[in-house]
Amino acid sequence: MTSSQGKTLEGKRQKEKGKSTRILRPMASAIFIVHILVAAHIGLGPTEALAAQRPDPAIADAAGAQTPENDVNMQLFSAAMLGDVAGIQKALAAGALVNALSDSGSTPLALAALHGHVNAVTALAAAGADIEAADKDGATPLMIAAAQGHTRVVEALAGSGANLNVKDRGGITVLMATASANRLDTLKYLVAHGADVNAKSSEGMTALMVAAFAGYAAAEQLLIASGADVNAKDSAGRTAIMAAGISGSAEIARALLAKKADLLAEDVGGSTALIYAAANGHAEFIDLVQKAGLKKNLDLALAYAARGCYTPVVRTLMAGGAKLTAKVEGVGPLGLAAGGNCDETVTFLLSRGASINSVDDNGMTALMEAAAAGYLPVVEVLLSKGADIEIRNKQGQSAWLLAAMGGHNDIVELLRKVRGEPVPPK
Q1: Residue 92 has what DSSP assignment?
Q2: 21: how many CB neighbours lie within 10 A of its CB?
Q3: Regarding the domain delimited by 41-171, which CATH topology (the fold level of the hierarchy) does it fall under?
Q4: Cα dist. 337→263, 346, 350, 401 in Å?
Q5: Taking the CB of residue 405, how many other CB atoms lie within 10 A of it?
Q6: Is this model's pTM higher than 0.70 or not?
Q7: Which is it for the CA torsion 179, 184, 187, 191, positive or negative?
Q8: pLDDT digits 0-9 by tens, 252-295
Q9: CATH 1.25.40.20, applies to 355-426
């Protein structure tokens, strides 16, 4: 594969992955985790998290004005960020407020926790820092430290009385924040010291769902062993095994099934784990759940896989008995593949009996879908297989007209050649 081909293929995948999240109506599977990603500062190291989520302590203070009091407060923030215990004690002795607030509502204790400075955390706690002080997002120092995997800081805060089951404004718990960042050591500490493994966010998510979505098998197994409910549902009816379908982790699926996860569970839109996996291109996961007995909605799963350009998944589903009959938003598998610039999938579907001139609910053929979107490779495949260029949709538009309306001149010229019309000189 050439570099340009690789980029084109990746472009297809990214484009269609955006589409593939539209399983639930009107909810999207992508929002299954979005609050976790924001609240827990996922993937950020201490420096990056500070830059992204916390104002510069040199300019963020309680009042925003440059006064002698605020000068010592800034010294305290700076010392907390650096883990400078002597500096912390000096700033406090000079009158700094131990619970001074930054513009984001963070305290010096939160800043020390973010950077993993256990001695600084201990010093601030001993000086009277509010252990449960939350920032504007509702995140406490414990939650911030846990999301960064600073287990010693978590231990110190817990030892000072911090609540292990505190939630932020979105209902995200410390355990969820930890699981979403795959901080295993911290996760082990939390479950061993009483963190509620079945606590739910405001949208009904659990730490088990979060770990499954991210594909963190070790975290998932730890939570299962600690008593997590494998069949808990969020407010949209989604379960951990559906989340595993999104990440595609067959290892997580096996662990869940071993604990009697309900493979036939459906979300409020009627989608199963199979649909989620197909929409995200996970052939191994699909093979596993099919062998485990999940056969429902194979046809719809195939349609989602076709839309995502996931030819191996389409092949796997057809081998398992899926038919080319289901539609997504009124469009069948061939039209979905054509409209997604999936020339390989189009070729495969045609080889397996897809009707090249079948129309969707709007009278659109696969050729019209590709021509309207400007996907020349797909148009070429369809024309080579005998697609009818004269068919019109319910608006009376042909493939040629749709291409012209979209300004896709290369396709317009190709269709003119096929019709035997002269092509104007350039």
Answers
A1: H
A2: 17
A3: 1.25.40
A4: 28, 6, 11, 21
A5: 12
A6: yes
A7: positive
A8: 999 999 999 999 999 999 999 999 999 999 999 999 999 998 88
A9: yes
